[in-house]
Specification:
The complex is a heterodimer of chains A (359) and B (294).
Chain A: E1 4-13, E2 16-26, E3 31-35, H1 42-50, E4 57-62, E5 65-66, E6 77-80, H2 92-102, H3 107-120, H4 136-148, E7 154-158, H5 166-182, E8 187-192, H6 195-201, E9 204-209, E10 212-217, H7 219-224, H8 229-234, E11 241-248, E12 255-258, E13 261-264, E14 279-284, E15 289-291, E16 297-307, E17 311-318, E18 321-328, E19 338-343, E20 348-352
Parallel strand pairs in A: 3-8, 3-9, 6-7, 7-8
Antiparallel strand pairs in A: 1-2, 1-4, 4-5, 9-10, 11-12, 11-14, 12-13, 14-20, 15-19, 16-17, 16-19, 17-18
Helix pairs in contact in A: 2-3, 2-4, 3-4
Chain B: H1 16-43, H2 47-51, H3 65-72, H4 84-114, H5 120-132, H6 135-149, H7 155-179, H8 183-191, H9 196-204, H10 209-225, H11 228-233, H12 241-250, H13 258-292
The chains are: A alpha+beta (359), B mainly alpha (294).
Chain lengths: 359, 294
């Protein structure tokens, strides 16, 4: 069991700082996902934890040890890469055994550990093949197996599923999750730009943008209570609906007003005290708007229906707004038909338009 | 009138451009092959036939005697043992120079592209600069250095010179090749606990076959064809074949033995020629992958 603690970490390439004083604590046995668009610094962070990048400032702690100056092999980590990075001239067995050989592990033990890892990942029949004789999914399984035999305390995944096609990605995602349940003493840090992977795998998600941590929390917190406009827009597919407007006071209490749209806000759990007249952005996820007879928002028209199978995505327009609704698969309103909408008040998010922070 | 429906393979047409290209290729081929043809024909003729002057003609009486003489009897000064002496000298120089220069280039290229040593780019720049300075500039200083250290005019001296002067191009070649390998492979090996030498020998070197072949071709032809270094540094007993060939052709005792000289020349050119023929495809790839792209 090893926790990972990143303390005021700064990584610089030449004079450009790629990470600047970033801190992050990962508990032992936790599955943490670093999520963000490309260039946000998540891979840099992972490489710094692995010891593959020199740190300009700050510390990396794994367990009770300060490993900031340790070689990668001495950090008790194993790593899986996007491009699999299997040694092309070795067969699967030797690929998996390479790290153990380097550590001068006795032959019998190498054999035993490779066999055990291969069984766990169902690649026993592939042990004598070379990487170029394997499919993409098999290669990534071998790469995970190579990490597994090392009995590392911390697993680092650098976008391991990004090179696979959609179906394989789903399969392996489930297997990685199961793997973590089997070896739940292992801490996992997983980098991805795929929000579905993040939401399904993570105990906690760290959303990053522009080298900074935007929000850290459980998948539910990230999805239902995004901390700012970026997180709200980046996580969730189809994207959250946004309305710009302002806060109005009045006899009925605080309300949100955007043009002709009006939404009373009683029951909303404000983070900070709102000010009347404050510019606000209202965010509602597509599945949190229902079509009813007598909702507060009238005068919308159906513009497009996207069939997704289990559910349908319905684009509606009206009052100079265009929004997406996610409805069950049997809901197919005719194009141009008028709709009345009711937002689910327990699942709305309000952001200060200027600071883009949740209020 | 009915138009023909386009269907299936498009009919090929011979255009003026195609004819032009083939004509050019043919002329170029003749231009380069003619001297080789003359050499080969002359080497197979007795002297009487050569004096008639029909240099392009097939010999009336084919004789291999000039070849035998060139190999084992041709004279350089008073020494009449043929080019075989030079041939074996060249082989003795070639093999260690080849192995050492490729090994040095491969390790340097590997260190420069993967290990990101501080100042690696400056170092590489200096190395490249070295490749562009004319060799003649180095000759005299090197002669002095070797004379002082006492290895001047020796077998070790010529090998060392070939290794030093092969280093820039070999490093460039290997560095560029290694830059095209996925860096994640190297990272994975580091996480797995590989050190500088174990990663090089177990992971990188087994993936280097194509570039090793290219480097071998470049170095074999380069070292074999070398004249200046051999003449300057090898010493009397180790003169390579090129130097000896020059001595044979330029030493005049009575009539010039054109047929023997031609045979000796072809014998000298045989190794690079064989390398080109066996590995033409790799040679082109080496030029394309190594020296051109930075």
């Amino acid at each position: 069991m090893s926790s990972v603690s990143i303390r005021d970490l700064t990584v610089a390439f030449g004079s450009t700082r790629v990470l600047n004083g970033l801190s992050l604590d990962v508990q032992a046995g936790e599955f943490i996902v670093l999520l963000g668009p490309s260039g946000c610094g998540k891979s840099t962070l992972l490489n710094a934890v692995a010891g593959l990048l020199d740190v300009a400032d700050g510390q990396v702690w794994i367990g009770e040890r300060n490993v900031t100056w340790h070689e990668p092999k001495d950090r008790g980590i194993a790593m899986v890469f996007q491009s699999y990075a299997l040694y092309p001239r070795m067969n699967v067995r030797n690929n998996m055994a390479f790290g153990l050989r380097m550590a001068k592990t006795p032959k019998a033990e190498i054999e035993e550990r490779v066999t055990r890892a291969a069984e766990l990942l169902q690649i026993s029949h592939l042990l004598d093949r070379r990487p170029d004789q394997l499919s993409g999914g098999q290669r990534q399984r071998v790469a995970i197996g190579r990490a597994l035999v090392r009995d590392a305390h911390v697993f680092l995944f650098d976008e391991p599923l990004s090179n696979l096609d959609a179906q394989l990605r789903n399969e392996l995602r489930v297997e990685i999750k199961k793997l973590h349940q089997k070896i739940d003493t292992t801490t996992m840090i997983y980098v991805t730009h795929d929000q579905i992977e993040a939401l399904t795998l993570a105990d906690r998600i760290v959303v990053m943008k522009d080298q900074k941590i935007q929000q850290m929390g459980t998948p539910d917190e990230i999805y239902l209570h995004p901390a700012n406009l970026f997180v709200a827009g980046f996580v969730g597919s189809p994207q959250m609906n946004f309305f710009e407007g302002e806060l109005t006071g009045g006899p009925g209490g605080a309300a949100f007003k955007s043009g002709e749209l009006h939404l009373p806000l009683d029951g909303y759990n404000f983070n900070s005290a709102p000010v009347t007249g404050q510019r606000l952005t209202l965010g509602i996820r597509p599945e949190h708007i229902s079509i009813t007879e007598n909702g507060p928002w009238q005068g919308f028209k159906t513009e497009l229906v996207e069939t997704h199978g289990a559910d349908n995505l319905i684009w509606v327009g009206g009052h100079n707004h265009s929004l997406r609704l996610r409805q069950p698969g049997d809901c197919k309103p005719a194009l141009g038909s008028p709709l009345t909408l009711a937002p689910d008040m327990s699942h709305i998010s309000l952001f200060d338009t200027q600071t883009s922070m949740r209020i | 009138m009915t138009m023909m429906q386009a269907s299936g393979r498009r009919p090929s047409r011979i255009s003026a451009g195609t004819i032009g290209i083939y004509a050019f290729l043919l002329i170029a081929a003749v231009f380069f092959l003619l001297p080789a043809w003359i050499m080969l024909m002359t080497s197979l003729k007795p002297m009487e036939e050569i004096r008639l002057g029909n240099i392009l003609m097939w010999p009336n009486a084919v004789t291999f005697e000039p070849w035998i003489r060139a190999w084992s009897e041709a004279c350089t000064g008073l020494d009449c043992r043929g080019v075989s002496v030079g041939f074996w000298n060249s082989v003795r120089i070639l093999i260690p120079s080849l192995i050492l220069s490729i090994a040095a280039g491969a390790v340097t290229g590997y260190a420069l592209s993967f290990w990101r040593v501080r100042g690696a780019n400056v170092m590489f720049g200096l190395l490249l600069l070295g490749a562009f300075i004319p060799y003649q500039v180095f000759l005299y200083p090197l002669v002095r250095i070797f004379a002082v250290t006492g290895i001047y005019n020796s077998f070790a001296c010529i090998v060392l010179v070939h290794v030093i002067f092969g280093l820039p191009i070999m490093t460039l070649l290997f560095r560029n090749y290694y830059a095209s390998l996925p860096v994640e492979l190297f990272k994975a090996a580091r996480v797995d606990g590989g050190g500088f030498w174990s990663i090089f020998i177990r992971i990188i070197l087994p993936m280097s076959t194509p570039i090793l072949i290219v480097a071998t071709i470049l170095q074999v032809t380069g070292i074999w064809n070398d004249f200046l270094f051999g003449l300057t540094f090898a010493g009397r007993d180790n003169l390579p074949m090129t130097v000896q060939l020059n001595n044979i052709v330029s030493s005049r005792q009575g009539e010039s033995q054109y047929n023997t000289e031609m045979a000796a020349t072809i014998l000298t050119a045989m190794i690079p020629l064989a390398v080109y023929f066996i590995s033409g495809r790799w040679f082109v790839r080496g030029i394309a992958s190594g020296a051109v792209k930075g």
